[in-house]
Amino acid sequence: MRPLLLGVCSALFFAITFVLNRRMELSGGSWAWSSSLRYLFTLPFLLALVAGRRRLKPLLREMADRPWAWLLWGTVGFGLFYAPITFAAAYAPGWLTAGTWQITIISGSLLAPLFVTRMQGPQGTVAERGKIPLRGLGLSLIILAGVALLQMEHAQKLSVSQVLLGIVPVLIASFAYPLGNRKTMELCGGRLDVFQRILGMTLASMPFWLLVALFGWADSGLPSGSQMVQSLIIALSSGIVATVLFFRATDMVRHSMTGLAAVEATQSLEVLFALLGEMLILSAPAPSLVSWTGIAVIIMGMILHSLFSHSKPAKRPVKRSERESISSAQ
């Protein structure tokens, strides 16, 4: 239950991103600055946090061992996740972006065959390729049905261009985030904690963010003071608090594809938190009866996901000593 609670808390802090990104776009801020400033502001906080815990050198050694892999998956997990999210905010309201983002529930499950889990069996260590959790995928569809109901009334008022430019980038982000997250977990092999892994991905994605910042400067000049303040808030709430909570939750269930699917399903609550945030900050109208029905369906799907994730015991993970012996033999 604890991983799911951490996932719900992360959804609350992640939702701030959708509301403030939309607010910055409505005030004329550049999406390129909105995305790059978050990670530029996040970096010094993470450096101070990890260095203060005396865990910076182990991280740098890990990154030096496989620099290109870190560069690739850090850019995928953070760059191809957040840049499309902020780009979409220019063409769609925050509730639509947050709602579309829930496709990550299915995206994460569909990525399972790309990963191999090593387990200790009767005949020694066995490598088993992940399988798509069909039952969990069905429960995810219940959540998505609730999201669809939540958006139904509003989506009818949008133009085709808003739908395409506001949805397609988010679909790309929905696959990039869990893919980068899980691939860096593989790179770490349990040797790094959550803070080290987030800092590693942030450092690895810096070349990408510097290019995005250069594009923002060339396109619209320097960011305004208001955009910098709101980006700082996003960096702290989403880049630090929410990301740490979510990565901690996925680390706790990283040997169970069903458990990972359940934690990723908690992110469906972002659409509810984003809707409430837009009502309070951007004066968005209150949900209709259809929308409240969608909220009820989402909550039901979340409860079913929680029950299902505890219906089977997780398989015993390979111990660190066993993992190191396997690696040295390859």
Give structural notes.
The protein is mainly alpha-helical. It has one domain. It has 14 helices and 2 strands, in the order H-H-H-H-H-H-E-E-H-H-H-H-H-H-H-H. Helix 1 packs antiparallel against helix 10, helix 1 runs parallel beside helix 12 and helix 7 packs parallel to helix 11. The longest helix is centred in the middle third of the chain and has 29 residues. InterPro entries: EmrE. It comes from Paenibacillus sophorae. Keywords: Membrane, Transmembrane, Transmembrane helix. This is Multidrug resistance efflux transporter family protein.
Walk me through the topology.
Blueprint: H1 2-26, H2 31-52, H3 56-65, H4 67-88, H5 94-101, H6 104-110, E1 116-121, E2 124-129, H7 134-155, H8 160-188, H9 194-220, H10 225-252, H11 257-265, H12 270-281, H13 289-309, H14 320-329
Antiparallel strand pairs: 1-2
Helix pairs in contact: 1-5, 1-10, 1-11, 1-12, 2-4, 2-9, 2-10, 3-9, 4-8, 4-9, 5-7, 5-8, 5-12, 6-8, 6-11, 7-11, 7-13, 11-13
Labels describing this entry:
330 residues; two-stranded antiparallel sheet; 2 strands; disordered C terminus
What can be said about this structure in brief?
The chain crosses the membrane at residues 31-50, 70-92, 98-116, 136-152, 158-177, 198-217, 229-247, 259-283, 289-308. It comes from Paenibacillus sophorae. The protein has 330 residues and is mainly alpha-helical.
